[in-house]
Amino acid sequence: xxxxRQALRYLLKDSKIPYTLKIAxxxxxxxxxxLLYSIDERVMLIAFIVISAxxxxxxxxxxxxxxKGTKRLLWSFAYGSSIFLLLFYTNFSEFNQVIEQFGFHxxxxxxxxxxxxPCLIGQTLLLLGSCVLGRIPVFKTLLIFVExxxxxxxxxxxxxxxxxxxxxxxxxxxxSIRTQIALRKNKGETFDLLTFSKQSLPVYLxxxxxxxxxxxxxxxxxxxxEYLVIFIACTTMPHVxxxxxxxxx
Length: 249
What we know:
Elements: H1 2-13, H2 19-39, H3 41-60, H4 69-90, H5 92-101, H6 109-132, H7 138-158, H8 160-186, H9 193-219, H10 225-248
């Protein structure tokens, strides 16, 4: 395990690593997800949602210093799950189309409501408890509630695909870049925007290109909604895995 962490650290952080190797690592992650889809498409969809939900929550908890250990893990999963459930609930018919194409039966809105409520209550109790104890500022607590309400409204307006894209770019990817910069500075590393861009550019360009091509083919009726979701998963999951391992190291 030690050797694996050292190898991964070298791969992700050494600027001398060729772009082709970084891209190959990204593509390998995507291919592994495609393999999972070929084995069991339902497991692939569940894995995509669960892993992404936790990672989205983990990124959002980066600015909440009052959460440590188990509390951070629980809150991260509750918050990320809330985002996905709000997206699914506000675009219920599209959500049913997706899961039916992956071999699931359609569900009723009440089913999603029963999942949303525990997630919202759980993260609210953790937030308020930490706020009362003075571990998290009141402003940050209120900001999260305002954020969830705003996302609920935006998701209703945009639809499931545009809503996910909006959240992934503005609520996750951009803050994720800020987190990477903060981690480097906290470790005493000199920050050079040009060098950082060169190290990250191949992966971000590959992600953007894959997403744009997938949406183009879908809008022109050249691929089904099922394959669009697979493309999105193969774009998102390598990013999730790379960032999770980057933060761990």
